[in-house]
Design goal:
Blueprint lengths: L2 H15 L15 H52 L3 E6 L2 E6 L2 E7 L5 E2 L4 E7 L3 E2 L1 H9 L3 E4 L2 E7 L5 E5 L2
Antiparallel strand pairs: 1-2, 1-5, 2-3, 4-7, 5-6, 7-8, 8-9
């Protein structure tokens, strides 16, 4: 055996005898700092995506709820005018929509706080027997190009004389 081989053997033997010798197998339990950082980065990305999607879902559901609230209020106003044989009004005060039979409140609904609208304050629509929206109030309401929206998405509202409501758009 040559001197180089003996020296190489001696060096390997000395390295193997050291307490922290790397043999290619992990001898201690636990994670390295790099593994922990990678796991945290992956977890952060997953949580970020989840929070973003949850926010979009929540905003979309609040928009749908607001549109449904307007739809129900208008439909019930037409129905109440027909059933009672008297004029009914739909009013807005902030986020509150009220159906009124004279001074009597028939229904009160609240629009979600994150949803905006350009509906005017005060009287929105007037319903007359047999359950139709008066042409004057419908014309004044539609003249404003009414909309409901949140987070940059806008739904334009169309209302028919018999109280049918369509929400258009969303972009």
């Amino acid at each position: 055996m040559s001197n180089v081989s003996r020296g190489l053997r001696r060096t390997r033997a000395q390295i193997s005898a050291l307490p922290h010798a790397h043999t290619g197998l992990r001898t201690e339990a636990g994670l390295t700092l790099l593994e922990i950082l990678i796991a945290l980065a992956v977890l952060g990305i997953i949580l970020g995506i989840g929070i973003f999607n949850a926010r979009q879902t929540l905003t979309g559901s609040q928009e749908r709820a607001a549109i449904q609230t307007v739809r129900q209020s208008i439909w019930q106003g037409a129905t109440a005018a027909s059933a009672r044989g008297r004029p009914i009004t739909l009013t807005r005060n902030g986020r509150i929509l009220r159906l009124m039979d004279g001074e009597t409140v028939i229904r009160t609904d609240e629009l979600p706080p994150s949803v905006g609208t350009n509906f005017p304050e005060g009287m929105l629509l007037e319903f007359s027997p047999p359950g139709k929206i008066t042409p004057e109030s419908l014309g004044a309401f539609m003249e404003r190009d009414p909309w409901i929206g949140a987070d940059g998405r806008t739904h334009h509202i169309e209302v028919s004389v018999i109280g049918e409501v369509r929400a258009l758009g969303g972009g």
